[in-house]
Amino acid sequence: MSQVYLYDTTLRDGTQREDISLSVDDKLVIAKRLADFGFHYIEGGWPGSNPKDAEFFALASKLNLGQAKLAAFGRTRQKRLQCEQDSNLQALLDARTPVVTMVGKSSDYHVKLVLAATLDENLAMIRDSVAYMKAHGREVVFDAEHFFDGFLANRDYALATLRAAADAGADWLALCETNGGKLPWEVEEIVREVSRHIRTPLGVHCHNDTGCGVANSLAAVRGGCTQVQGTINGYGERVGNANLTTIIPNLQLKMNKNVVSPDQLRELTSLSHYIAEVVNLKHYNHAPYIGHSAFAHKGGIHVAAILKASDTYQHIDPALVGNVMRSVVSELSGRGNIQFHAKTLGIDLNNEDAQHVLSHIKHLEHEGFTFEAAEASVELMLHRLRPDYVQPFELVDYFVVTERRHSRGLLSEATVKVKVQGEVKFVAAEGNGPVNALAGALRNALEGVYPILKTVRLIDYKVRILDSAKGTSAQIRVLITFQGGGHVWTTVGASANIIDASWHALSDSLEYALVKLNNTVPHAPPIAELTTND
Prior knowledge:
The structure is a single chain. By secondary structure, the protein is α/β, with parallel strands linked by helices. It has helices at 24-37, 51-60, 87-94, 108-115, 119-135, 147-153, 155-167, 184-197, 213-223, 244-254, 262-265, 268-279, 300-306, 335-344, 351-367, 375-383, 434-446, 498-518, and strands spanning 5-8, 41-45, 69-75, 99-105, 139-145, 172-177, 202-206, 227-230, 296-297, 326-327, 394-405, 409-420, 423-431, 457-465, 476-484, 487-495. Helices cover 39% and strands 20% of the residues. The strands form four sheets. It has an eight-stranded parallel barrel with strand order 1-2-3-4-5-6-7-8, surrounded by eight helices. It has a three-stranded antiparallel beta sheet with strand order 11-12-13, with helices on one face. The protein has a three-stranded antiparallel beta sheet with strand order 14-15-16. Mean pLDDT is 84; it is low at 520-534.
């Protein structure tokens, strides 16, 4: 297996995405996590451009990054300055990183228009800057900006910029597909041509403007590149950079390249989620390999097949990248979906019971429920099938009122009567809305008996109108998401009354919390009696 080196630029190029802003501490923890995963190069930022990156490099020097090499990013010297006079180059040296990455122009169009320099002046800027950094003991990556566009416009000059860097001692020549406009066969052909003329190791840096960032990176490896630059989850300017969470498994599992160890590869899904949490962006469920839905099966025929052999509808074992196979339950499900889901919970469901549950779910979805995004509701339904399951609480009734009082403004109040361990509790609570008041009353009734519920918190509440043409009498679907004990779960309720829909979802969520966190799996009512709130 030939080696391909991974170069992560999430901390610089990734932060150019318009809704990402990282603190110095954020960058430090991400750098450590990337190093632990097995990245060979981690680009930390541009120390000559802002105080935050300068501070990052000062603190990053104290991190134990193992075999990972930290890179500082900058540009070649300005045309009228010597290297010793250029503040950007001095900032690169001050960062004290083992690797320096310098971007320089490889397109004659950009040299003339953007730099307002002659072609020879640009070659001298590249040559001098690389030589200067090599003289100071740095490993140098020359990022040839707009290389593919420049090559097609003026092949000889684009190659001349690479030779200038190579002759000055550059360790890597990264061919940048800066505008993201090329297609894979163009990239591969150009890289092959460059490989015929240049002996210095080649890297590739692709953007995703045509949706081909990953494909172009793989094509470049086929053409001869042995370093791949990109970002975690494809974060980056405009529509993003080449997504390393897709590139890495494709290189290792599909192209037989040596990238990271199998143990490190199994951390890929966890790494992707971790970075999404730190940058404060929702993880993309449908991302290849590491998405929540990447190995989710909804069609009944598919699930029936994977119950016999998982590779019938999966291109790899999801465990290789730290993901899991899932069965999605919906009105499109077959009996196998239910049996698969039950099996993951340790419940052995016979065909008759599975068919009964499936019919019940399809009936509920017809009424407005949806279980694709509310797996906890399905799991709870299956737990209730256990012969030893005992409901932790049972609704007797509830009463909710909202009124506007002159002295106190808008007021919501709820009372609930629930049976808990044989005792009927009658509890009231106020809230900033009827659902909030109802949730408060239910929690007040339960937390004394089940104190673990104090660790559970609501993190999302969604309401959807299903048939808007009916106006205020439309059917309402409510999805409620709770978090606790390291778990996140979602339950669903549906009704023409938003309070009733909310109650279904809310009570299911708290019951699920007791099952998940308190191991409360005690009586199952007969399957014929199943409802979402039994």
